[in-house]
Design a protein that fits this description.
Layout lengths: L1 H4 L9 H21 L2 H8 L3 H5 L5 H22 L4 H9 L7 H12 L4 H28 L8 H20 L9 H12 L18
Helix pairs in contact: 2-3, 2-5, 2-7, 5-7, 5-8, 6-9, 6-10, 7-8
């Protein structure tokens, strides 16, 4: 089932399809899975229902691809701005501004995944794509000692994504970090703990300052 719903490579761009995916991601972020209707998506996109069913077999398929493709696009942007694995952790752990549409969509997807197998598949696909795209950063970190030889890079990446999701939940509820800089200090210590004991570290820079 999951294989059938994955988008095949397309040699001819389809701007209307992209508009529908953008619109679906936005409506999903605002209304959640059960509240999203095809009519809302086509209205947001400024298209007709025929544009949807000419490209997607169902609402499930449209939302699944929206979650997968838009999460992958955002992940690519995050990774392009990161020079090392620590950047990913710090960026996800020290952010307390209001949720973006993408973050709201990701949160809604995790909630919907409990009851909607196709959405769960989309979440898994998006996370696997992120892990594949992060591979060069993980390899570089293992070589330069930023991740110690006895630390599992997959565990590091799982931790990074878990912290990011946890902060997304906190921000969605309007909660902020502890005052006094204790949270930043804890993140600095966690980042340093990934590395080899004798790996060179610039103690004059905090994890936040290195991003």
């Amino acid at each position: 089932m999951a294989q059938q719903l994955q988008s095949p490579a397309r040699s001819v761009p389809d701007p209307l399809r992209e508009r529908l995916l953008d619109a679906a991601a936005k409506v999903f972020a605002q209304k959640g899975y059960s509240g999203t209707r095809i009519l809302d998506v086509v209205s947001e996109a400024g298209l007709s229902t025929g544009a949807v069913y000419g490209r997607f077999g169902s609402k499930n398929e449209l939302l699944r691809e929206a979650v997968t493709s838009r999460s992958a696009s955002r992940a690519a942007g995050d990774l392009d701005r990161a020079e090392k694995v620590a950047d990913l952790l710090v960026r996800g752990a020290l952010r307390f501004d209001p949720l973006s549409d993408h973050e709201a969509m990701r949160l809604e997807a995790f909630v919907a995944a409990r009851r909607e197998p196709e959405v769960a598949d989309a979440v898994v696909d998006a996370e696997r794509t992120f892990r594949r795209r992060a591979e060069p950063l993980l390899e570089a970190a293992s070589i330069d000692g930023t991740i110690a030889h006895d630390v599992d890079p997959d565990a590091v990446m799982f931790f990074v994504r878990t912290v990011s999701l946890g902060l997304t939940l906190q921000r969605a509820a309007g909660l902020s970090a502890p005052t006094g800089g204790g949270w930043e200090e804890l993140i600095n210590r966690v980042v340093a703990s990934f590395g080899e004991p004798d790996a060179p570290h610039d103690s004059s820079k905090s994890a936040m300052g290195e991003t």
